[in-house]
């Protein structure tokens, strides 16, 4: 048995839900199905991250990340406030712990200005006034950063979509996508869907789904595990608001940071180590098929050539706890080994080109019958409402509703 729908969104993370929401808000008469393979919404990247609403400080001016993060963050804060999702604008500081990092801090300051971010330079004395237990020679104080619970955001969006008439299906992995006249047939274990347009928001499996649909993506997904720790007892009081290191500009990762959460816990991390399974949340999670693919893939060899030093550092910090503690102490010297315990992990779907370059910006491509989101790392959750509107505009174009699609585009940042 198959059901005919206008739009099938594959993936029930925050971006898939936001896309379905944008379609229905622009065109309430559309029939939309959201298909999620897990038994809950936001089960992977959306529900296993630092829960930070980013300001747009880090991203190259003119990039999609930069254009979407600033306005998208404000939209996300407003969404949380209007839908009863916990949110707090905390600000954060980005700390240079040595004089060698000062040129990178200055460059980050200029990048933030270009992106419209409110960032104030702090001296060592001003750092001490703001965060007495944080060590640094200089820092940037960023006002726009906020904290939320993206798992709760996903739940709110799913509830809203139910009210808008979407068909919401968990436990519905898409096994195949095949052309069926002007539609695409999406097979799931329980039911099949014939969609006029499908949107691939499958995250860690997005490249696999694209290939199942007959596309030839120019990237492959490399899963990176980010491991978190938690501060215990009195050590939780050592920081008041999020504290970040100066990031390595060659990598799309922000480094190990300290984040007081809305529930009173304080998370430290994540690092970024290659995972040996697409859902490799634990070191022992190994998918032999994926390992074989990676070993044969020239992209992995290219990635290793470019980043073996940083990769070795991340891996050592993952395996040797004192190294992790040492890096935390660079920011917060009073933290001791006994103050930290492991606290879960997330897996990031990082796109890598065939030559082994890490894709730093969002990557969204179109093919026959579908739209594929092939790279949506941070700040995708922050920017999900805007990205969802962009994708929905193309969906509505394909449904031959150009006027409403144009209205959606007008919400995008210039």
Structure description:
- The protein has 414 residues and is an alpha+beta fold.
- The chain folds into 3 domains: 162 residues, FAD/NAD(P)-binding domain (3-Layer(bba) Sandwich), CATH 3.50.50.60; 52 residues, no CATH class; 124 residues, no CATH class.
- Helix content is 34%, strand content 26%.
- The chain is built from 11 helices and 20 strands.
- Strands 1, 2, 9, 10, 11, 12, 19 and 20 form an 8-stranded mixed sheet that branches.
- A hairpin with a 4-residue loop joins strand 11 and strand 12.
- Helix 1 packs across helix 10 and helix 2 crosses helix 10.
- The relative contact order is 0.19.
Q: Which features does this protein show?
A:
414 residues, alpha+beta, FAD/NAD(P)-binding domain, 3 domains, eight-stranded mixed β-sheet, five-stranded antiparallel β-sheet, 11 helices, 34% helix, globular
Topology of this protein?
Layout: E1 2-10, H1 14-26, E2 32-35, E3 52-53, H2 64-82, E4 87-89, E5 92-96, H3 102-114, E6 119-123, H4 124-130, E7 138-142, E8 146-148, H5 150-164, E9 167-169, E10 176-180, E11 183-187, E12 192-200, H6 206-212, E13 219-231, E14 243-245, E15 257-260, E16 266-269, E17 273-274, H7 288-296, H8 298-319, H9 321-331, E18 340-353, E19 363-367, E20 370-375, H10 384-398, H11 402-409
Parallel strand pairs: 1-2, 1-12, 2-9, 5-14, 12-20
Antiparallel strand pairs: 3-8, 4-8, 5-7, 6-7, 10-11, 11-12, 13-16, 13-17, 13-18, 15-16, 19-20
Helix pairs in contact: 1-5, 1-10, 2-10, 8-9, 10-11
Question: In short, what is this structure?
Answer:
InterPro entries: FAD-dep_OxRdtase, FAD/NAD-bd_sf. The chain folds into 3 domains: 2-46 and 151-218 and 361-409, FAD/NAD(P)-binding domain (3-Layer(bba) Sandwich), CATH 3.50.50; 92-143, no CATH class; 224-241 and 248-353, no CATH class.
């Amino acid at each position: 048995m198959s059901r005919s729908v206008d739009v099938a969104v594959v993936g029930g993370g925050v971006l898939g839900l936001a896309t379905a929401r944008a379609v229905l808000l622009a065109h309430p008469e559309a029939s939309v199905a959201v298909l999620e393979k897990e038994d809950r919404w936001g089960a992977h990247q959306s529900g296993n991250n630092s829960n930070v609403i980013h300001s747009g400080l880090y991203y190259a001016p003119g990039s999609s990340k930069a254009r979407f993060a600033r306005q998208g963050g404000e939209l996300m804060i407003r969404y949380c406030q209007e839908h009863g999702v916990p949110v707090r604008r905390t600000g954060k500081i980005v700390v240079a712990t040595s004089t060698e990092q000062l040129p990178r801090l200055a460059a980050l300051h200029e990048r933030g200005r270009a992106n419209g971010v409110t960032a104030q330079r702090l001296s060592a004395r001003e750092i001490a006034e703001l965060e007495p237990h944080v060590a640094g020679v200089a820092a940037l104080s960023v006002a726009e950063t906020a904290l939320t619970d993206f798992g709760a955001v996903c739940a709110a969006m799913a509830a809203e979509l139910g009210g808008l008439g979407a068909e919401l299906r968990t436990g519905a992995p898409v096994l195949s996508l095949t052309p069926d006249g002007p539609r695409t047939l999406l097979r799931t274990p329980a039911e099949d869907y014939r969609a006029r347009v499908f949107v691939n928001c499958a995250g860690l499996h997005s490249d696999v789904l694209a290939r199942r649909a007959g596309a030839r993506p120019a990237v492959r997904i490399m899963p990176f595990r980010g491991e978190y720790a938690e501060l215990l007892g009195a050590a939780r009081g050592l920081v008041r608001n999020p504290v970040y290191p100066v990031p390595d500009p060659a990598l799309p990762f922000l480094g190990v940071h300290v984040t007081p959460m809305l529930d009173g816990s304080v998370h430290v991390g994540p690092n970024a180590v290659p995972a040996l399974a697409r859902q490799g949340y634990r070191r022992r999670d190994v998918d032999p098929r994926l390992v074989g693919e990676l070993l044969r893939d020239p992209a992995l060899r290219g990635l290793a050539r470019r980043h073996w030093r940083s990769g070795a550092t991340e891996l050592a910090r993952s395996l040797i706890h004192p190294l992790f503690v040492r890096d935390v102490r660079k920011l917060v010297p009073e933290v001791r080994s006994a103050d930290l315990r492991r606290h879960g992990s997330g897996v990031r779907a990082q796109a890598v080109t065939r030559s082994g370059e890490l894709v730093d910006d969002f990557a969204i491509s179109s093919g026959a019958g579908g739209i594929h989101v092939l790279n949506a790392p941070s700040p995708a959750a922050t920017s999900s409402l805007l990205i969802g509107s962009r994708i929905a505009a193309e969906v509505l174009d394909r449904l031959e509703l150009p006027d409403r699609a144009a209205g959606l585009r007008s919400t995008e940042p210039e």
